[in-house]
Amino acid sequence: MRMAPLRLALMATGMALGTNLLLYALARLAGVPFQVAPPGRPPEEVGPAAVALFTALPMALGFALYVPFRRRSPRALPIFVGLALAVFFLMLFPPLAAASDPRTELSLIALHVPPVAFCLWGLLRMEEAL
What we know:
The protein is mainly alpha-helical. It contains six helices and two strands; from the N terminus they run αββααααα. A two-stranded antiparallel sheet has the order 1-2. A hairpin with a 7-residue loop joins strand 1 (about 35) and strand 2 (about 45).
């Protein structure tokens, strides 16, 4: 059964969002402090709203750009897979720079994995649907 691209995008984003909020809650239960100090700014707490926003917004933007780009380029899938992986690796550095506790660093890095995994899953499924 083929799914509409919008439905696949929403499903992938929802699964990444749910997974990240669960990982965040489990890390909080384990006592991980989510205190970060971005360079040049005072320390701040990373809360579930920030986790939700920084999970869903980039995914929604990526999927919104993929469909029109796919119509114009037969190489859209490899380009977007490359972009997703590049963004994943580039976004690993900010948690390392902002978090002072190794548990926080590890947790923040772990929160980057589900969006990329579900984004790749969604892109592959969208390619099949289109």
